[in-house]
Amino acid sequence: MLKDFEYLSIRYKDEKLEILDQRRLPDIEEWMESKTPEDMITYIKQLSVRGAPLIGVAASVALFVYVRDHPDADRKTIVEVSDQLRNARPTAVNLMNNIDTMIQLSQPDQDKRDYSAEKMAELAYSIVEAEVEMCRRMSEFGAELVQQGEGILTHCNTGGVATPGMGTALGVIRAAHRAGKQIHVYVDETRPLLQGGRLTTYELEREQIPYTLICDNMAATLMAAGKIQRVLVGADRIARNGDFANKIGTYSVAVLAKYHNIPFHGVAPWSTVDPACPSGKHIPIEQRAPQEVQGASGAFGSVRWAPKDSQTFNPAFDVTPNSLITSLILDTGVYDCQSFEKYVEQIKGNLS
Ligand code: MRU
């Protein structure tokens, strides 16, 4: 029913949906099967599956698997299951956009009782393919901006493990490297969950792209030393006015870039744009557990250095206002954020 596919961190083969457990990278490559929506919700919440495009794709395929395995489920139950998947994490809008597409476009006919698994299979596959293609297109648009020999700072992980394709910001880096631009990447480790230190480094190593890993608080020193000519980051939700939410720490990088006069770009597919969201103030920001800030945990075990009851502040994302963004690089082109609202209407019109 659903055609097989395999990407760096998600695959569907022999009727099994599997994801690469991103918590265990870079040293352990362990695939886990997602048999039920509950499995997928757990994987998304614990960041085994992470990155805005990937969670949207993974949840869509998980919804298909549920409908396939429950031929007797009625409409109400399927909608409830889709809502649970939709609510697994609140910030990345790809999740909501993709689940809404699955539910709206597979509406049963009036005289039929159920959503059709066939239709859901088709939709899930087209969502996967579209994300791969959008990654390719935005990577090409972005790579055209990159100049020979640039030092590029990136934050979090926006690559092949965060998407089913070549990535968003890391896709641009990949495309620039493949085009022979001789870039050097500076990778923010990205506290508290170290997506840069664990995952971006993993991907850059695999592709032999020259990089230097830094702690988040070292970016200013590198900028002042003239080592960084461009900042490329991903996004989890782009509001209509061009403000966007991305991994916590992105806003501080944008402020630093503005001060040092360094171009700062957000790179994302159309599935990350939320035309219904007027500005960054309206983006829901996920708050996470104190333990992530009180210490660290991963495949290496866990360690706590702060007092057990220490009070913490742990938002998973922050919002970068459009005034700090040089341009947004989407799969449809490169846009000036100050007039993004106008473009959103145009792109919506072209796509419908
Ligand atoms: O909490 P995460 O790891 O899911 O956050 C991911 C990010 O913030 C990424 O920058 C964003 O999703 C873009 S990934 C292509």
Automatic annotation (TrEMBL):
NCBIfam families: eIF-2B_rel, PRK05720.1, salvage_mtnA. The active site is at D236 (proton donor). Belongs to the eIF-2B alpha/beta/delta subunits family. MtnA subfamily. One of its GO terms (molecular function) is S-methyl-5-thioribose-1-phosphate isomerase activity. Keywords: Amino-acid biosynthesis, Cytoplasm, Initiation factor, Isomerase, Methionine biosynthesis, Nucleus, Protein biosynthesis. Gene3D superfamilies: translation initiation factor eif-2b, domain 1 (1.20.120.420), Translation initiation factor eif-2b, domain 2 (3.40.50.10470). The lineage of its organism: Eukaryota, Amoebozoa, Evosea, Eumycetozoa, Dictyostelia. It comes from Cavenderia fasciculata (Slime mold). HAMAP family: Salvage_MtnA. It holds the Pfam family IF-2B. The keyword Plastid does not apply. This is Methylthioribose-1-phosphate isomerase. GO terms for cellular component: cytoplasm; nucleus. Catalyzes the interconversion of methylthioribose-1-phosphate (MTR-1-P) into methylthioribulose-1-phosphate (MTRu-1-P). Its EC number is 5.3.1.23. GO terms for biological process: L-methionine salvage from methylthioadenosine. InterPro entries: IF-2B-related (IPR000649), IF-M1Pi (IPR005251), IF_2B-like_C (IPR042529), Initiation_fac_2B_a/b/d (IPR011559), M1Pi_N (IPR027363), NagB/RpiA_transferase-like (IPR037171).
